[in-house]
C-alpha cells in the first residue's frame, strides 16, 4: 500500500507516522488514506482526539477470534490516544444486516438483542479498554427518528446506488426476493456516523459498501466525511472458510485456556502466518524475523507455540498459557491431564457405549459406537475396538479423541 506521509509543508511528526503505521498494519483498505493522514495531523496540532467508530450487531452472544481482528485495530488506535466508539446496533439488529446474504436475514427480538448485547461488553473488554471507550447504542437516535425522519433520510440515497451493492445486485439478477426494509440497513448504519460525527469507521471487507454510505450521508448532512478502514476476514481453523461458529472452525474468546491453545496449534503452518499478521501484537519486524528463521530451517512448531501462548495469555493469563502448553504436550504424548472430571456411574457391568453417553463423553450411544469404530476411544490408555465391551465395576480413565477425558468410577 502506498504510504504518502507528506503534508502541505512537507513535514510529518513521528507520532503521525506511528499512527499511520498502526492504521495500515494488516488492513485491507484505508480510504482515503490522504484524508486520514490530514485528520491525524490536525488532531496532533489541536490536541483533539479523533473519533473512531465500530458497529456491533449483537446477533449472537459469543465472540470469536475472527471478530477480534477489528477489535485489535481499535485497541491500537485507542492506545494512541484517540476515542474509540463501540456502537451496539440494538436498533439496526432489528432490521437484520443483509451483507453477504442471498436471503433476507430474520430480525431478532428485543429480548434476544438485549441478552446478546449484555455478554458483548464483558467480551469486548478483553481487547479494548472499555473504561476509556465511548460505548453507545444506536437506538438513542434511531428510535426518535420516526417515520418522517426515516423518509427524509431515505431521500438522501438513490435506489440505483443501492443496487450497486453486490449482494443486492446478485439477488435481483437471480430473481430472489429483496425486502424494502433491507435497504434501510446501510442507511441506518450510515446515519450512525452522522449522529456520532465519526472521523473513521472500521469494519470487515464485507462491510465496505455500508461504510461508504456513511461517508455519503455525512456529506449530505454538511459534515466532514469519515475515512473508512477495512480489515480482512479471518480464515477459520480449516484455513478455507471465514471463521464462523456455524461452520465449527472457530476459536471462541471465552473458551477455556487448554482448548484455545490446542485449537491454535491445530492450524496449518501456512495459515499460522496469516493469523500472526491479523491477531498478534508482536512488532512486524519481529514476526518477519521469526518467519525468516522458520524458512531457514527452524521448526514451525516453535512459532506456532509462541502464537498460541500469546493468544491464550491475552484472554486468560500468562500462567494459564504456560499450563495450557504443558497440557498440550501431555496430550500429544498420550498422557492424561492433571485435572479431569470425576464421574460416578452405577449399573455394572455397563456397555461401553452407554458408559460414554452417561459420562458425558458422547451425545448418544450411536455416536459412541461411531467413535469406537474410528479408534477414538481409550480406556486406561488402551484403544477400545469392541463395541460390545461390558465394563465391570471399577475406576477407569476414559478418553475420547484428543481432548475429552473423565475418571469414571463404575459400581
From TrEMBL:
Localization, UniProt: Cytoplasm
CDD domains with a match to the protein in the record: S4, TyrRS_core
Motif 'HIGH' region per record, residues: 58-67
Alphabetical UniProt keywords: Aminoacyl-tRNA synthetase, ATP-binding, Cytoplasm, Ligase, Nucleotide-binding, Protein biosynthesis, RNA-binding
InterPro entries, sorted: aa-tRNA-synth_I_CS, aa-tRNA-synth_Ic, Rossmann-like_a/b/a_fold, S4_RNA-bd, S4_RNA-bd_sf, Tyr-tRNA-ligase, Tyr-tRNA-ligase_bac-type, Tyr-tRNA-ligase_bac_2
Annotated ATP binding sites: 245
Main location: cytoplasm
Annotated EC: 6.1.1.1
PROSITE patterns referenced in this protein's UniProt entry, alphabetically: AA_TRNA_LIGASE_I, S4
Molecular functions (GO terms): ATP binding; RNA binding; tyrosine-tRNA ligase activity
Summary of subunit composition and partner proteins: Homodimer.
Role of this protein: Catalyzes the attachment of tyrosine to tRNA(Tyr) in a two-step reaction: tyrosine is first activated by ATP to form Tyr-AMP and then transferred to the acceptor end of tRNA(Tyr).
PANTHER family: TYROSINE--TRNA LIGASE, TYROSYL-TRNA SYNTHETASE
Name assigned to this protein: Tyrosine--tRNA ligase
Taxonomic source organism: Ramlibacter algicola
Amino acid at each position: 500500500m502506498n504510504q504518502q506521509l507528506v503534508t502541505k509543508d512537507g513535514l510529518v511528526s513521528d507520532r503521525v507516522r506511528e499512527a499511520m503505521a498502526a492504521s495500515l498494519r494488516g488492513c485491507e483498505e484505508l480510504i482515503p488514506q490522504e484524508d486520514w493522514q490530514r485528520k491525524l495531523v490536525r488532531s496532533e496540532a489541536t490536541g483533539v482526539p479523533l473519533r473512531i467508530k465500530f458497529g456491533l450487531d449483537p446477533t449472537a452472544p459469543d465472540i470469536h477470534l475472527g471478530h477480534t481482528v477489528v477489535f485489535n485495530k481499535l485497541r491500537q488506535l485507542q492506545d494512541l490516544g484517540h476515542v474509540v466508539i463501540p456502537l451496539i446496533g440494538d436498533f439496526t439488529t432489528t432490521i437484520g444486516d443483509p451483507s453477504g446474504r442471498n436471503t433476507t436475514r430474520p430480525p431478532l427480538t428485543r429480548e434476544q438483542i438485549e441478552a446478546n448485547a449484555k455478554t458483548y461488553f464483558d467480551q469486548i473488554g478483553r481487547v479494548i479498554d472499555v473504561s476509556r471507550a465511548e460505548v453507545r447504542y444506536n437506538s438513542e437516535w434511531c428510535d426518535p427518528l420516526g417515520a418522517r425522519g426515516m423518509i427524509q433520510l431515505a431521500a438522501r440515497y438513490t435506489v440505483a446506488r443501492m443496487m450497486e451493492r453486490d449482494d443486492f445486485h446478485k439477488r435481483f439478477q437471480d430473481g430472489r426476493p429483496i425486502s424494502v426494509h433491507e435497504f434501510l440497513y446501510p442507511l441506518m448504519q450510515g446515519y450512525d456516523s452522522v449522529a456520532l460525527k465519526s472521523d473513521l469507521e472500521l469494519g470487515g471487507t464485507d462491510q465496505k459498501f455500508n461504510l461508504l454510505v456513511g461517508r455519503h450521508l455525512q456529506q449530505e448532512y454538511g459534515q466532514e466525511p469519515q475515512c473508512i478502514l477495512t480489515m480482512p476476514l479471518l480464515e477459520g481453523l480449516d484455513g478455507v472458510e471465514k471463521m464462523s461458529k456455524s461452520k465449527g472452525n472457530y476459536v471462541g474468546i471465552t473458551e477455556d485456556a487448554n482448548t484455545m491453545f490446542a485449537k491454535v496449534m491445530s492450524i496449518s503452518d501456512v495459515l499460522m502466518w496469516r493469523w500472526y499478521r491479523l491477531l498478534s501484537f508482536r512488532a512486524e519486524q519481529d514476526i518477519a524475523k521469526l518467519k525468516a528463521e522458520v524458512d531457514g530451517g527452524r521448526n514451525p512448531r516453535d512459532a506456532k507455540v509462541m502464537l498460541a501462548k500469546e493468544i491464550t495469555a491475552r484472554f486468560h493469563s500468562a500462567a494459564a498459557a504456560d499450563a495450557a502448553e504443558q497440557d498440550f504436550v501431555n496430550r500429544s504424548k498420550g498422557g492424561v491431564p492433571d485435572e479431569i472430571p470425576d464421574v460416578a456411574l452405577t449399573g455394572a457391568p455397563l456397555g461401553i457405549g452407554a458408559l460414554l453417553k452417561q459420562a458425558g463423553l458422547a451425545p448418544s450411544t450411536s455416536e459412541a459406537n461411531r467413535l469406537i469404530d474410528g479408534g477414538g476411544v481409550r480406556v486406561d490408555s488402551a484403544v477400545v475396538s469392541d463395541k460390545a465391551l461390558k465394563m465391570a465395576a471399577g475406576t477407569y480413565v476414559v478418553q475420547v479423541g484428543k481432548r475429552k477425558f473423565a475418571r469414571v468410577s463404575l459400581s
